[in-house]
């Protein structure tokens, strides 16, 4: 049985066959807009809802947002300060005489293990980094072009929600069970419809 049709399957892309910590889990993206504008776009991330989980009756892990300074934005989930917590931190550095901004990210996720589709899989910090960097780059591109970054911001918000969920085994397993039950119900409904139609 897979992880479900409603989106949790995307979590599988964050896992690998062994836990791998690169030690270089930072990346940076440059945006050709002033720091205040870029920080504002990222600071509003939690106002974008990935909503699909809640609408499907699936509990999310919950993310805490902190803003220690005017150039820092930190997302955490799980036990505070513990080894089993997620921490994704962004800093926003003015460059080019204040005309641009360098967005840096530092990512820490716990070495959790699950059985997914019959295989033992670990949450991969490298894959998490790649997924977040892709969304951040899309946000940077949209901001550069003077467009609203809402679409890319929603994608980044969903990625953060998925990583937070994957970081907490109890909540992940509960969500996985719900998704698999919904998938089984969907399959049963499809079979009934096909039978009724004489397929």
What this model shows, in words?
- The protein is α+β, with helices and mostly antiparallel strands and 199 residues long.
- The chain has one domain (13-176): Alpha-D-Glucose-1,6-Bisphosphate, Chain A, domain 4, CATH 3.30.530.
- The chain has helices at residues 35-43, 52-55, 125-144, 150-167, 169-196; strands at 15-16, 26-31, 64-66, 72-77, 86-95, 100-108, 113-116, 119-123.
- The strands form two sheets. A five-stranded antiparallel sheet has the order 2-6-5-4-3, with helices on one face. A three-stranded antiparallel sheet has the order 1-8-7.
- It is globular and about 70 Å long.
In short:
With 199 residues, the protein is an alpha+beta fold. It is built from five helices and eight strands, in the order ββααββββββααα. It has a single domain, classed as 2-Layer Sandwich (Alpha-D-Glucose-1,6-Bisphosphate, Chain A, domain 4).
């Amino acid at each position: 049985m897979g992880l479900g049709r409603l989106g949790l399957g995307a979590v599988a892309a964050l896992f690998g066959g062994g836990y791998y910590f690169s030690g270089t889990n930072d990346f940076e993206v440059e945006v050709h807009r002033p720091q205040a504008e870029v920080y504002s776009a990222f600071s509003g991330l939690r106002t974008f809802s990935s909503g699909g989980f809640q609408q499907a009756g699936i509990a999310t892990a919950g993310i805490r947002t902190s803003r220690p300074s005017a150039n820092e934005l930190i997302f955490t989930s799980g036990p505070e300060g513990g080894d089993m917590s997620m921490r994704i931190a962004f800093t926003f550095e003015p460059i080019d005489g204040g005309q641009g901004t360098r967005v840096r990210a530092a990512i820490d996720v716990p070495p959790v293990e699950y059985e997914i589709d019959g295989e033992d899989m670990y949450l991969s910090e490298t894959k998490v980094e790649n997924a977040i960097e892709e969304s951040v780059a899309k946000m940077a591109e949209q901001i550069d072009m003077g467009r609203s970054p809402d679409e890319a911001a929603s994608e980044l918000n969903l990625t953060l929600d998925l990583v937070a969920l994957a970081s907490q085994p109890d909540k992940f397993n509960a969500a996985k069970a719900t998704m698999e039950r919904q998938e089984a119900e969907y399959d049963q409904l499809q079979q009934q419809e096909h039978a009724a139609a004489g397929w």
